[in-house]
Design brief:
CBS-domain, Clc chloride channel, 11 strands, 30 helices, homodimer, 52% helix, 807 residues, mainly alpha, 4 domains, three-stranded mixed beta sheet
């Protein structure tokens, strides 16, 4: 019977499992923050205690103190690049010194361009690099003789315009399909967790949930490879969200280098919070915005210490990014713009309108996307994930190519849209009729307003179509689903031994860029509208004083930026972090007020149609245990309405302090699935002693069997401070087992009459997993006030406790 | 005996005291956040419930929902100006359109200048305005013929240089003394709470402490008047810290306009957090930095909702400030600088050095200042506060005048020091020997490095002396003390009826500008040193590659900025908010890395010599009940070690559920000073029922006496759900009183074996005031897990509870 303990541990095959593992968690379980923080303090005390023992111990203490900074430094460095070590410094576009791009950025650019053509003789160069040193380059950078479209390569150019177009079109679609299917297959085969945006899951993990492998090295590797593929396939998705996931993977991997962080789930999440900040910092070149994003949107417990380290991490990442300079300008940011003209108070009206429209779009998007995901989940569609990817990619590519604004990368489109029309701008968006006069504007900073030219009219039509198309296709793209559970688990068996829930998507999809794209188009359209309105009615009282006659005072580019903020806000319901990120993108404090106005209206309008952002929606859809600490619990139920057992249920499975045998406990573990068991004095008195976690019990029993062969099935187990001394009888007699030390003696308890609003507060603020409910018939012992606590702290810190005067 | 209840209520003379007052707090007491939030939810539920009753109710509900935004908007508007309504738009300096300065800024400038001289014929103009339209103005803006020093006015100019100097010197000192004593007297007489920086107290109030009148209208008025006086008196202090206090006063006053905020201490603190953010936003023109300052340094509970509203508030304030434009440049900020030159990696070494020195200074300052304040508190010095102000002002003024860098306002000095030396700069700080060649530099952006000129040498000496002087005098200035308790209370009796504790200082003193000044001097000195080092050893490997031969690559102005950040960080131990504020001051993302480096080293070095910032030090010195949620409790004590009663103490004062009379309770209230009493079943069983707050008990008894004359001293009081029906006996028979509804039935309880680290966590995270301690012999009833909570929430929100899959 000695062996019965071992087969309890199907999940833990490591026979070295020792007491250190007490306090770890099973997969798909929630951690107990209070307990983890206690464990960390215990560890810290031990280090302090042993510090004076030897020089080595002192060093170890120092290392421990430093490791917090070291790990975020490493994460910051790594977050810039998933492969900072593999960083390739391709010697193209080397005129600006030190222009080396990171792997993801370079590959994305190349793959995006390869859909359109190739560089003759130098297939590894993207269009920009190909034309960099060319003397035939067109001034606007749209192409050069070295850069050939596929039609030219296949020799059909010049023979027939229709045929040329057709070949280019076909190859565009084919390459998009290849990239998308490759990405989907890679994800499917090697790392199903690499799919999707990752932010809902990262958010859930940060709130204290365990998903083993979700932030692992395979996920990191595959996501880094497939993210560029997915973006290049022209699907309506971005790599900014996935960058947060990738950065979190880096954080998780580096955390395991330091036992302080790797072995404590609460401390590990501090690193992950910093990593998420670094991810956004890298994605947008916005370190402050990244920290606020992590604080507001992703993180759960965010102590000030973490804030400071996250900031360091985000800044390191931004700084390295700046040194690498993948965007090719001297600024950190993705679409750096400076506007020459200020904005005027009357413009707050269109900005608010844009904000409201962004909020409406966000609400509609969230509802449509969630409905589509739910339909996919519950219908046969979910069984053909690769087919779905192929179909969506085909539709996207086929519909994108004819429209120049959807043909190019979404982030390039946004960069185009947020630009101001300067005197030298020569694209359709800036085609006003008076363009002949424009030649003289090189010195005038403030060109007069003119009516729309034919180029701009075309552009507006194309933009309107692009808006419609992007707005719709994104709904179907965000959350493309992967095959059902079992096929998946079989396929990935060499790498993962755990079951994968069935609702992971399979293309790495980010939502930032697509929703910003929709908003930028909308904003630009409205901006041109307002501009023409001001032109046509120059005497309107609203703007008469601000706009000097005949001079443009409306910047459509700024409207595009505001629109991008509005839709992003509507979809994600970010607030401060959104404004700060956009502010860091524009680089000017003076545009923060328009952005704020748009973000506020977007949030208000969006919230009117449903309180949750897209990430919270997906968290709920996936059934993750996420207790939102931003939402207030407003109902009047009591703890007794919520607690188990309900009336008529089986009585609670409990452990008695004395009298149970090893066999009883093993039976208990085998037959129940509870995460833990209350320990009581006896079934008669039902007095609560403490709480015992299932996993701790399993490990302790396993350990006892392993260390002492006299622990038999009929050994008595004592959960008391003093177990009877083992009788020195026969050698085969069962030895009693004392397991008092694994019982949590101070579980959080509430009374049955406690309002649930307070219980929710306790759960979310303290981050506990379980609370025992007791009857309001406690023997009162004493009382602790805040003053007592403060005096106690003062006393322990060798300060005068009487200096605490008030309570 | 009916009247015995009334004289219990010496503090509450309002006979209309009704049940609404249940739940309010006494002065110098701590609030219970959990309870306040519950009260707010109850109020919110009532509004929702009654919303459909009538149109008026609907409007009231809408008003309630909007009031959160409205109040922060009002605070934001008001924070710019304590007197936005009294804002005077002085028509001076009107060439830049709309240049109207706020009262405080204008008065400060005028008072500062009036120490040096006056404008002939227009005494109400300050130097800048006086010379604005003058044709005789000197190009550097140092003076004009209309602006006359006091010596000229008194006719001693030109006769004797020594005499001129003497008269100016004397009048400088005299005016400084007048301003300082006036400020001190005003504060002493009308609003003793207007003294000091206010940040430690605001921080304490935000953590849940009640100091009535601290944020009142008198404090606001007097502080707004005396802050300019104190700054103008040339004491080593700034008005930036006090602006936080002033803004908080605005927040408090506006909160009272909305019952949602005015009548709920927890909700009120949300407004105060936003107000503190607006204060910093106004002080530095840094809205994002202001929010982070509020989040990191001042606030205690900072839910995301508050973050967003604080941001709105801070932004409103910054926007209004920009419209008023008191700094006279088009930027929001105090010392806006843009540097032409980038910084180089090798410079991180001097930046780190500056950071370390700043941390050292901060630690030394904190220790010295706290020691001096403690000495003042415990010696006779504390009895002569006005004398102390006069002496310190005299010493400061006498020592300041001879040195041009201390003679001027500290913020002007900082603005001077952080400037880059451009081709047209013509002051001592930029006097390099090759200045003759400078004429040709108007097109060269990058002047060559040259050795120090005689002007710069003088400037360096003066700066070194200024550094020494400022560093020392600030220690004695921050925290100048007011007269002892009783005199104070008598003096201010017409306005305040409550006792004032004895440790309030009496000149409004801010610490930001003085410590930044010290740092800016230090930074500039080191910057010039590094610059000359690079000049003298151009071939050193460290900078050879970065600095092209003969060209300056070191910007001493940037070093001054970094130095300011370092000392401010060392003194206050701010982290993220410091970096963001300084980043907003410089306006360039690229200098954020040097600032970060300095802030990090400053904090590390500072923390090595003591973990607390100056504000925490003063909080501790004053004995405020502030439970720092940033610090971890690392000891191993148990709740039983902390709770009252200790072994050998009197037993706990408790209330029995049944059997006590009104007289007993009145006796209890009269003879004890406890904030509340546990309610137990009986002295025999000692089973805990709930907790009853003293103030609630007093109000309930008062109320009962008031409403029913049959409630007599010998009326029995029942704290049970069902009281016996009153016997319909004689008309004068005592009526039993049922007070079950005022008992808190779900007090937070911990067991006697709960580690104190968990108790501390519970107190700081939940913000409770009292926890009852019970013996680990609870009758177990059931259990609640996080999953149960989530399912419960899902169910109440009409969602599928089974969608919560994991625990």
């Amino acid at each position: 019977t000695t062996g019965t303990g071992t087969h309890l541990l199907e999940t833990i095959n490591n026979s070295d499992a020792n007491i250190d593992d007490i306090g770890t968690y099973d997969d798909f379980h929630t951690i107990d923050w209070l307990r983890e923080m206690s464990r960390n303090r215990l560890r810290h005390r031990q280090i302090l205690y042993r510090k004076k023992e030897s020089f080595f111990r002192t060093l170890k203490g120092l290392h421990d103190a430093w490791s917090g900074w070291l790990v975020v430094l490493l994460v910051g460095l790594a977050a810039v690049q998933t492969h900072i070590l593999l960083k390739i410094c391709i010697p193209y576009k080397c005129s600006p010194p030190g222009t080396c791009a990171g792997l993801i950025d370079i590959v994305t650019k190349w793959l995006t361009d390869v859909k359109l053509g190739t560089c003759s003789g130098k297939f590894w160069l993207n269009q920009e690099s190909c034309c960099w040193n060319s003397h035939t380059a067109e001034p606007s950078g749209t192409g050069c003789s070295e850069w050939k479209t596929w039609a030219t390569i296949f020799g059909v150019e010049n023979s027939n315009t229709g045929l040329t177009y057709g070949v280019n079109y076909l190859l565009y679609i084919v390459s998009a399909l290849i990239f998308a299917s490759l990405a989907a297959l890679l994800v499917k085969m090697f790392a199903p967790y690499a799919c999707g945006s990752g932010i809902p899951e990262v958010k859930t993990i940060l709130s204290g949930f365990i998903i083993r492998g979700y932030l692992g090295k395979w996920t990191l590797l595959i996501k880094s490879i497939t993210a560029p593929l997915a973006v290049a396939s022209n699907l309506s998705l971005g790599k900014e969200g996935p960058l947060v996931h990738i950065a979190s993977c880096c954080g998780n991997i580096f955390a395991h280098l330091f036992p302080k962080y790797g072995k404590n789930e609460a401390k590990k999440r501090e690193v992950l919070s910093a990593a998420a900040a670094a991810g956004v910092s890298v994605a947008f070149g916005a370190p402050v915005g990244g920290v606020l994003f992590s604080l507001e949107e992703v993180s759960y417990y965010f102590p000030m210490k973490t804030l400071w380290r996250s900031f360091f991490c985000a800044l390191t990442a931004a700084f390295i990014l700046r040194s690498i300079n993948p965007f090719g300008n001297s600024h950190l940011v993705m679409f750096y713009v400076t506007y020459n003209k200020p904005w005027f108070l009357f413009e707050l009206v269109p900005f608010a309108l844009i904000g409201a429209l962004g909020g409406l779009y966000g609400a509609a998007f969230i509802h449509a996307n969630l409905a589509w995901c739910k339909f996919r989940k519950n219908s046969k569609l979910g069984n053909y994930p690769i087919l779905e990817v192929v179909v969506v990619t085909f539709i996207t590519a086929a519909a994108s190519y004819p429209n120049p604004y959807t043909r190019i990368d979404a982030s390039m489109m946004i960069a185009e849209l947020v630009k101001e029309c300067g005197p030298v701008m020569q694209n359709n968006l800036c085609d006003y009729t008076a363009s002949v006069v424009n030649a003289t504007f090189s010195v005038v900073k403030d060109p007069p307003v003119t009516p729309i030219g034919s180029g701009l009219r075309t552009a507006l039509w194309q933009l309107a179509l692009a808006l419609l198309f992007k707005g719709i296709i994104t709904v179907f793209t965000f959350g493309i689903k992967v095959m059902p559970l079992k096929a998946c688990a079989v396929l990935i068996s060499p790498f993962h031994v755990f079951p994968i829930p069935s609702y992971f998507e399979n293309v790495p999809t980010g939502l930032f860029i697509p929703s910003m794209g929709v908003g930028a188009i909308m904003g630009r359209l409205i901006g041109v509208g307002v501009e023409q309105l001001v032109y046509n009615y120059p005497d309107c009282a609203l703007w008469k004083t601000s706009c000097h006659a005949g001079h443009s005072c409306v910047t459509p580019g700024l409207y595009a930026m505001v629109g991008a903020a509005a839709t992003l806000g509507g979809v994600t319901r970010m607030t401060v972090s959104l404004v700060v990120i956009m502010f860091e993108l524009t680089g000017g404090l003076q545009y923060i007020v328009p952005l704020m106005a748009a973000a506020m209206f977007s949030k208000w309008v969006g919230d009117a149609f449903g309180n949750e952002g897209i990430y919270d929606g997906h968290i709920r859809l996936n059934g993750y245990p996420f207790l939102d600490n931003k939402e207030e619990f407003t109902h009047t139920t009591l703890a007794t309405d919520v607690m188990r057992p309900r009336r008529g249920d089986q009585p609670l499975t409990v452990i008695e302090q004395e009298g149970m045998t090893v066999g009883d406990l093993e039976h208990l573990v085998r037959t129940t699935k509870y995460n833990g068991f209350p320990v009581i004095t006896s079934h008669e008195s039902q007095q609560l002693i403490g709480y015992l976690y299932r996993r701790d019990l399993i490990l302790a029993l396993e350990n006892a069997h392993h260390n002492n062969e006299h622990v038999l099935s009929n050994s008595l187990v004592y959960f008391t401070l003093h177990a009877p001394t083992p009788s020195l009888g026969g050698a085969n007699d069962p030895v009693p087992l004392r397991l008092f030390n694994i019982v949590d003696l101070s579980p959080i308890t509430v009374t049955d009459h406690t309002p649930m609003e307070i219980v929710v507060e306790i759960f979310s603020k303290l981050g506990i997993k379980t609370s025992t409910v007791v009857k309001r018939s406690l023997k009162l012992l004493g009382i602790i006030t805040k003053k007592d606590v403060l005096r106690h702290i003062a006393q322990l810190n060798k300060q005068d406790p009487d200096s605490i005067l008030f309570n």
